[in-house]
Amino acid sequence: MAHLSTRVLTGITTTGTPHLGNYVGAIRPAIAASRETGVESFFFLADYHALIKCDDPARIERSRLEIAAAWLAAGLDVERVTFYRQSDVPEIPELTWLLTCVTAKGQMNRAHAYKAAADANVAAGEDVDAGITMGLYSYPILMAADILMFNAHRVPVGRDQIQHIEMARDVAQRFNHLFGAGRELFVLPQAEVEEDVATLPGLDGRKMSKSYDNTIPLFDGGAKALREAVARIVTDSRLPGEPKEPEGTALVTIFDAFADATERAAFRTALVNGLGWGEAKQRLVEQIERSVAPMRERYEALIAHPDRIEATLQAGAAKARAIARPLLDELRHAVGLRRMQAHPVAAVEVKAGAKTSAALAQFKQYREADGRFHFKLVGADGQVLIQSAGLAEGREAGRWVQQLKAGDATALDAAPIERGAASGYDRAAALAAIQAIAEQAAAQAAEASSKG
Ligand code: TRP
């Protein structure tokens, strides 16, 4: 899986309409980063994730269109980057299932989106899972599939998403370990939180966010809506002519996001010298418009031709699937979802990697009709390596299995097992098998402790 370039991937949940905060905090820096050399960027509309939060089809449809148009209008170069819809890549939900099968439920219990909802239910005296869907619960697994499907190295996200990237790393590691047979099927992704990208304040000075209802639209409603929103930015009550304190005001912070150093200094000087808030807001609108007006023109042209956006996204999906399909084929093979063949490949693999988990022998414990307890050790190829005698107690069988799993030759020779030619017992094979089990357990323990 060696790539010459670094793969950077991020998803945009398609609920809502893009606002200035999205542009400054996500769209603009992502597009700038995608122009760096040595970077291969993947940007996608996380519309399956949107379904978790929204059950209004019209809103889902509209939001996908607006967000796609916004990214394209802002200058995303779709020749250079891979820009697609999550829902156009069926390999992603398929991978989600493969990952779901190796994800610990306990870890999902701790995922913060689920935990917050569950805690709120408990606090309200409701059932812990009231109103919580499996979509919300499994959200981090779908997100892990988004990332691992393209073997992304870096994932730029907000702070609130770091936990999800760590979960993706964990599940990737577990999958590699279980099915990689020594290979790294998945790259372990790294969260990337941009420290210097300003989070834009909204009208009331808090972080600009749809959930605070304090946003300034990026394109929606045109220049008029922009002007009206800016007019509602909260300021203090100082009159024109009175000196203003520019630092820390929402108005100036938003201005800064669209200005160069000279313009920033000039705006501050004017405020200190008594520029009225009304006029300052007018200057802010002009400043924003300098960047946004040309984009808005492109945006409106795109929105008027959804078929063009559709074609762009389809082309993006084809590019994405050209990467996703071969990897998924490999993964299917790795977990055993293989073509049926006259000569099963399993026998070959046992030889190739006697120490890999795929080829490990397994203990089985069971009770016979006579009420006695047994255990046996079965090789990966189905051959019975150890067959125990009948024991009076299940716990006794369990104790022997534990000792044998430690790879202990003395225990092997003392164990109540059927030996001799008639039983087909092969001591060397049995010993090798239990030692392989013990070695793998030790390797897993070492890996777990090195992870802390
Ligand atoms: N959950 C992310 C958010 O709400 C969106 C997202 C979905 C994402 N899949 C992703 C981000 C994969 C990065 C990588 O912001």
What does this structure look like?
By secondary structure, the protein is mostly helical. The protein folds into 3 domains: 6-200 and 305-335, HUPs (Rossmann fold); 221-302, Tyrosyl-Transfer RNA Synthetase (Orthogonal Bundle), CATH 1.10.240; 362-451, YegP-like (Double Stranded RNA Binding Domain). It contains 17 helices and 8 strands. The protein has helices at 20-34, 47-53, 57-73, 91-100, 105-109, 112-123, 134-148, 162-179, 222-231, 250-257, 261-272, 277-303, 306-335, 346-352, 394-405, 409-414, 427-451, and strands at 6-13, 39-46, 82-85, 154-156, 190-192, 362-367, 373-378, 384-387. Helix 4 crosses helix 7 (134-148) and helix 9 packs antiparallel against helix 12. The longest helix has 30 residues, at 306-335. It is elongated and about 105 Å long. Residues 347-356 have low confidence and may be disordered. Tryptophan binds at residues 9-11, 13, 46, 49, 143, 146-147, 155, 157, 161. Tryptophan is lined by residues 9-11, 13, 46, 49, 143, 146-147, 155, 157, 161. InterPro entries: aa-tRNA-synth_Ic, Rossmann-like_a/b/a_fold, Trp-tRNA-ligase, Trp-tRNA-ligase_bac-type, Trp-tRNA_synthetase, YegP-like_sf.
Question: In brief, what are we looking at here?
Answer:
The protein has helices at residues 20-34, 47-53, 57-73, 91-100, 105-109, 112-123, 134-148, 162-179, 222-231, 250-257, 261-272, 277-303, 306-335, 346-352, 394-405, 409-414, 427-451, and strands spanning 6-13, 39-46, 82-85, 154-156, 190-192, 362-367, 373-378, 384-387. By secondary structure, it is mostly helical.
